[in-house]
Every structure is written in structure tokens, then in C-alpha cells.
Amino acid sequence: MNIDNIELEKSNCVNSPCPVEATLNVIGGKWKGVILYRLLSGKKRFNELRREMPKITHRMLTLQLRDLEGDGLVKRTIYAEVPPRVEYELTELGLTIKPIITELYNWGKNYL
After folding, report:
1. What's the CATH code of the domain at 34?
2. In angstroms, rounded to a whole number, what is the distance separating the alpha carbons of residues 95 and 97?
3. Whether residue 70 has pLDDT greater than 60
4. Is position 1 within any domain?
5. What pLDDT is recorded for position 84?
6. DSSP 77
7. What range does the domain containing 80 cover?
8. pLDDT of residue 48
9. What CA–CA distance (Å, rounded) separates 89 from 68?
């Protein structure tokens, strides 16, 4: 899609759902994009994610993972072991966001 098509579609966001708003509702906030970025490299356990994001609280990581799971972007797998092992990974839908997360990374790198 080029910029001209975006200009034409702006008017569609007035009386109908806006695609940008929908996207930001799913990946917006301080941590969801970072979680998705961390999961691009593959499955991770909860504590692996915590180590990679030391500023996030246990509760916030739990809530954000639940939201992403509820939106169908993240899959949670619980293994029947003692102690229980839980892994998180991107779903097929979650993998489709890779170009967006990659561009956010590139933009942020240039900005910094």
C-alpha cells in the first residue's frame, strides 16, 4: 500500500473501525511490543522473558502475556512436569506481526 491509498482510506476511519486503532489496541502499551520482539526468536519460558526485560514486574508480564494470548498472538503451553514448565511462543497470527515489530526496531535504532 502506498501513501496515496492511505490518504484515501483515512476517511474510512471516521465511521468504521480504524485499522491503526485496532493494531495499537492489540500491540500498544509499554510492554506488548517488547514481548512480541523477544518471542520472535522462538519459544521462551516466563523467567527467560523476565531476564530479558528486567524492568517489567512479574504481575505486568503475566497480564501482558494473557492479553496477547487472548488476542491470539501468543500460545501458552503447560507441560505436566514437576515443577510445571510453561512456554510461550508466537502463534501463526503472531508471526504475521514480525514485519511490523522489525520496522519498529529499525525506527527505534535510527531514533536512538
Report:
1. 1.10.10.10
2. 5
3. yes
4. no
5. 86
6. E
7. 18-111
8. 96
9. 10
d(CA 49, CA 22): 25
What global pTM score does this model have?
0.83
Separation CA 39–CA 59 (nearest Å): 18
**For residue range 15-57, what is the model confidence (pLDDT) as tens digits?**
777 888 888 888 888 999 999 999 999 999 999 999 999 999 9
Q: How many residues does the chain have?
A: 112
**Position 77: which residue type?**
T
Instruction: Give CA torsion, residues 109, 61, 98, 105, to 10 deg.
Output: 0
Q: Are 33 and 104 in contact (CB under 8 A)?
A: yes
Please count the structural domains in the chain: 1
Which residue do the cell numbers 511490543 mark?
A: 33
Mean pLDDT, residues 64-83 taken together: 94
ω into 83 cis (within 30 of 0): yes
Contact between residue 36 and residue 90 where contact means Cβ atoms under 8 Å apart: yes
Residues 6+ positions from 12 with CB-CB distance below 8 Å: 18
